[in-house]
């Protein structure tokens, strides 16, 4: 029969585990988990995953998942904060194409662009610039 090797926790999760351990040894009765510890747990869950964090910190999965989701909804994303309308006017008088571009980041941020009057080469350059790849 194989023995399981002890699990090695990442430093951030180990620090959160230490904070919870200290609180559990000093709390009185069955007091609720303080908000500062829920904040630590939610931050760890976003970084290391809800399941892994729940196991390390001995928390209820559904409660932590709900807190992580509500924290994410309360924090506006960078894209939402800096979003604005920008009109790009093409140069030249030749025949131009129309298209719709939909970009989605791995984080879930989405952008829809309706373009009229750009040549295909201009659309490629625009897409590269929007994605941060340069022209």
Description:
The protein has 135 residues and is α+β, with helices and mostly antiparallel strands. It folds into two domains: 11-74, no CATH class; 78-130, no CATH class. 50% of the residues lie in helices and 13% in strands. It contains six helices and two strands. It has helices at 11-26, 35-48, 50-57, 61-74, 78-82, 120-130, and strands spanning 97-104, 110-118. A two-stranded antiparallel sheet has the order 1-2. A hairpin with a 5-residue loop joins strand 1 and strand 2. The longest helix has 16 residues, at 11-26. The radius of gyration is 24 Å and the shape is elongated. The termini are far apart. The relative contact order is 0.09.
Primary descriptors:
135 residues, alpha+beta, 2 domains, two-stranded antiparallel ribbon, elongated
Please write the string of helix (H) and strand (E) elements: HHHHHEEH
Percent in strands? 5-15%
Low-confidence stretches: none
Number of helices: 6
N-C termini distance? 59 Å
Largest sheet: 2 strands, antiparallel
What's the overall geometry? elongated
List the helices and strands and how they pair.
Elements: H1 11-26, H2 35-48, H3 50-57, H4 61-74, H5 78-82, E1 97-104, E2 110-118, H6 120-130
Antiparallel strand pairs: 1-2
Helix pairs in contact: 1-2, 2-3, 2-4
In short:
The chain is an alpha+beta fold and 135 residues long. The protein has helices at 11-26, 35-48, 50-57, 61-74, 78-82, 120-130, and strands at residues 97-104, 110-118. It is elongated.
């Amino acid at each position: 029969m194989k023995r399981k090797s002890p699990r090695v926790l990442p430093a951030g999760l180990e620090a959160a585990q230490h904070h919870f351990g200290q609180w559990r040894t000093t709390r009185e009765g069955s007091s609720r988990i303080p908000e500062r510890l829920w904040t630590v747990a939610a931050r760890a869950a976003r970084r290391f995953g809800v399941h892994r964090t729940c196991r390390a910190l001995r928390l209820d999965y559904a409660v932590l998942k709900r807190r992580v989701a509500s924290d994410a909804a309360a924090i506006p994303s960078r894209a939402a904060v800096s979003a604005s309308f920008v009109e790009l006017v093409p140069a030249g008088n030749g025949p131009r194409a129309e298209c719709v571009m939909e970009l989605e980041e791995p984080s879930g941020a989405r952008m829809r662009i309706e373009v009229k009057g750009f040549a295909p080469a201009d659309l490629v350059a625009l897409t590269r610039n929007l994605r941060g790849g340069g022209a």
